[in-house]
Fold this protein.
Amino acid sequence: MSDQYEEMKKHLHSTQEEVKTQRIENQDLEDNVRKLQAESGQILENINNLEQYGRHECLEFQGLSCEESENTDQLVIGVSKVLQVDLSAKDISLSRRLSPASETNRQPTIIARFCSRRIRDAVFNNQH
C-alpha cells in the first residue's frame, strides 16, 4: 500500500509539473497572439494609408454613357474641356471604366489617375 501511495504521489507531482509547464506555454502563446494581433492591426492600417495615398491622383467620373471601343482618356479630356481645364492625354496616367454595379441602370464609373496631383486638383477644383 505504501508503494502505491508513493507511486500515486509521484504521478500527482509529475502531473502538477506538466500542468505548470502547459500554463507557462499557454501564457507565452497568448502573449504571442496579442503581439501578432497588434502587428496585424498596424499592418492593415499601413496598407490602408498607402492605398489612400495612391488614390490622391485619382478622380471618378460618373454618368458618362458607354460606347463601343470608347477611349476613356478622351472622355476625361472632354469633361475637362467642359470644365475649362486644359488637359491632354499625357496628363492622364490611366483611365478605365469600373465594373458596373449589379442590377442598376447606371453607367459604369470612369476612374482616372492623373500624372500629378496638381493636374487632378485643377480638374477637381473647376467642377460646377
Q: What stands out?
A: The helical segments are 2-54, 72-82, 117-125. Residues 76 and 112 are 8 Å apart (CA to CA).
